[in-house]
Amino acid sequence: MKHFKAAIVVAACLFLWANEGSAALLEENCGTTRPIPRRIRRVVGGRNAERSLNPWAVLVLGENDIFCSGSLITSRFVLTSASCLFASPKQVALGEYDRNCTSKECLSNRQVIDVDRQIAHPKYGYDQISKNDIALLRMAKEVEFSAYIRPICLPVGKRFGNNIRDFKAVGWGKTDSGETSMILQTATLEYLAPELCSRKFDKVIDKSQICLGSMTSDTCNGDSGGPLSALKKYNKTRRVFQFGIVSYGSAFCTGLGVYTKVEHFMGWILKTINKNINDTARQIP
């Protein structure tokens, strides 16, 4: 019954998408966090993220201890990069924060769920792997939302990000030490002219991508597929929306990086979820 209801919601979103000027959310219960009484201060050049302020951050677990990142967008789907699929994702860890933590509190807030379907954008790798770097992971079962597990907002039918200059990236990728982080990291990145990334990487940065950078921080190996987010007001409330996906950057993780622009692919996201919402389609090996 829940899958049937979800299919109706996605179909409604597709209708809204077709009507310019309409606005909706993929998940109504998205983009909000639970207030916490204290702050924990401390991605390359990043700092420790707040424990409960990134409940949509997903650790994607692949073969041979390889991992990448993603974001929870519905109770059944994780959004990530198509390049993340090279890690052969088998499971996703939701409510993850400290990968070393074994306390009862950590374990009670964390859920590890099998991935039963990997869906890369059909044009990824068609001409070059730097384009259409987006994918969906379907979890083997629906997840119940909590203070530590909650979807990020995706705008449907309305462009929200045109005037945003600063974005937040999160992930467990390599830090200044050259090692992947055990604790979820966060960094603030600034919107830059696409021409800067085009010159840096000798690739054309088109309207489906975002060029970002910072003098002090950058995303790195292990952060691929993670969300690029910002706060926006929606119906008089402030929510966290996802605007990008970590795609690629320099080998030394310094300076500029290229991110997949999520709103450019909203039509594909909605159609793909609608097509794969039930269990009748072919399972991945």
Automatic annotation (TrEMBL):
The keyword Transcription does not apply. It comes from the Eukaryota. Residues 43-274 form the Peptidase S1 domain. Pfam families: Trypsin (PF00089). GO terms for cellular component: extracellular region. One of its GO terms (molecular function) is serine-type endopeptidase activity. One of its GO terms (biological process) is proteolysis. The keyword Protease applies. It is found in: Secreted. Keywords: Disulfide bond, Hydrolase, Protease, Secreted, Serine protease, Signal, Zymogen. Its main location: secreted. Residues 1-23 form the signal peptide. InterPro entries: Peptidase_S1_PA (IPR009003), Peptidase_S1_PA_chymotrypsin (IPR043504), Peptidase_S1A (IPR001314), Ser/Thr_Proteases_Immune/Dev (IPR051487), Trypsin_dom (IPR001254), TRYPSIN_SER (IPR033116). Belongs to the peptidase S1 family. CLIP subfamily. This is Peptidase S1 domain-containing protein. It comes from Drosophila gunungcola.
